[in-house]
Design a protein that fits this description.
Length: about 240
């Protein structure tokens, strides 16, 4: 059956290794710079950056979970994990500034963020239902190759939305990191060590999004590879 196919490793292994490396980098940077003190907490930094850019209507909330930090453009709420919101460290301030930058993207109509937000419902559908539809097509193809191929193609197209979401996420996250660094340099007095720490934390986090995009693309390519087998089966 295709989901036990060892050929999958040829597509997935490079992305899995990159993802593991990215996670190690993030954990290492966060662990180190969470011990380097800053002159403000993450929540205080986020609020100051929001107000410095006139975003007084963006709500600031504490979320649950480690590194659960995110900006919700549908509700205009910036949520920070307890470690970031309450942390008085270079790592906490860097992460908080990154999320505040997402709110600034939203306020200025940054179009990649708009595309990513619009893709969320499609991705929620495609991420779990796409593989199921593909599997159904694989099963049906033994009885009706034409119907099986059609279902498998629908599954591939559904999962393609996941890959597209991961690709669009890259410029959104990289731009947010650039904005965060610029805002911290403009509105906060941080020593050279502090900015080095912010750069390392945000650059490591950006690598996780690169890994996610590579993984989504490699998985999509694997599905396309399997889909080509449907055509050979029909012939």
């Amino acid at each position: 059956m295709f989901f036990f196919d060892p050929v999958y490793l040829l597509f997935a292994l490079p992305a899995l290794l990159l993802g593991l490396y990215a996670q190690i980098k993030v954990q290492s940077a966060m662990s180190h710079y969470s011990r380097v003190a800053a002159n403000t907490t993450g929540a205080e930094a986020a609020r100051a950056l929001l107000e410095a850019n006139g975003l007084y209507d963006v709500q600031l909330e504490e979320s649950r979970g480690f590194l659960s930090d995110h900006y919700d453009p549908t509700k205009r709420v910036l949520r920070l994990s307890p470690q970031v919101a309450r942390g008085r460290s270079v790592a906490a301030v860097g992460v908080a500034a990154h999320e505040a930058a997402h709110a600034l993207q939203h306020a200025t109509g940054y179009w990649p963020l708009q595309i990513r937000t619009g893709l969320v419902p499609v991705v929620q559908f495609g991420s779990w239902l796409g593989p199921i539809i593909f599997l159904l097509g694989w099963l049906v193809s033994g009885i009706s190759p034409e119907l099986g191929t059609s279902l498998a193609l629908l599954g591939v197209l559904s999962f393609a939305a996941v890959a597209l979401f991961a690709i669009v996420t890259l410029p959104v996250e990289l731009n947010a990191s650039r904005r965060a660094k610029a805002m911290l340099q403009r509105y906060f007095v941080m020593d050279q060590q502090g900015m080095v720490g912010v750069n390392q934390v945000l650059d490591a986090a950006a690598l996780t999004y690169v890994a996610a995009a590579v993984q989504a693309i490699s998985t999509l390519l694997y599905y396309v590879f399997l889909l080509s087998g449907f055509s050979r089966r029909r012939d």
